[in-house]
User: Fold this.
Amino acid sequence: MQEFIMDYLDRNQAYFKGNSEFIYRHPETRFEKYQSSSYLAKACKEQAFTVERKVANLETTLIATYGTGEPVSGSLGDFDALSELGQQPNETSYLPLGNVGHGCGHNLLGTGSFAAAWRGE
Assistant:
């Protein structure tokens, strides 16, 4: 199983990296994730997921589903940015980039959840 997962991630690395980079370069805080949630919803639709938007009357939320029956699994893709965490990408030392950012790594959490459920090859 581990070999399958590593092969899967290697084959699709560019796709997932592109998703993560988009979210990183469009930092939006909690209920203001308009660009990043729209981008992720579009990516889900492109992979044949059914996407429900504005869940619980929150404009930036989404649920992406695929298939029917059981088992049912789910994952949370938290990808909001935080104030005071703007950071140059690919740097290990503190190099601030604006006020709001993903120095917390949440751009990776949203992408990781998407990668776990992704339908592509």
Summary: The radius of gyration is 15 Å. The domain at 2-117 is CATH 3.40.630.10 (Aminopeptidase). The CA atoms of residues 7 and 29 lie 34 Å apart. The first strand starts at residue 50 and ends at 53.
